[in-house]
Amino acid sequence: MVSLYVDADACPVKEETVRVAERHGLRVVMVSDGGLRPHPHPLVETVAVAQGADAADDWIADRIGPGDICVTNDIPLAARCLKFNAHALKPNGEPFTPDGIGMALAGREIARHRRETGAGGGGPPPFSKADRSRFLDRLETMVRAASRAASDG
User: Fold this and answer.
1) For the residues 70-98, what does the mean pLDDT come to?
2) What PANTHER family does the record point to (predicted)?
3) For FRET with 14, which of 4, 8, 36, 109 sits at 20 to 30 Å CA-CA?
């Protein structure tokens, strides 16, 4: 069965993830390094990890499996999930893919270097209603495809 893992710190689509999971009867694991209230839905497990730079990422990467889905903006975490044949989806609905993850990691390093050298960068655009809608659509599509693959194999 497909599980949904949410890198929950500052994730703007937690409720949307729960709605999709409820439709399909899927387990949701919200992982945070603190400050996240337990979700009342019985399909949702809330995990608080020790505070640390990658504690939530490490927890998810240690447990995610083939066909599972991780909701995250974190590019290195997405890369780790893809290595386990899991799926990764940004809260704005943009999927991370095996073909594009190398470029995303490189772009992240370029942006980090620009910040360190004072060249700056504007950061991502504000989260919008269109992003939320796109996320719901893409998560639904990803869940259906992952569920079909799990039942086939």
Assistant:
1) 94
2) UPF0178 PROTEIN YAII
3) 109
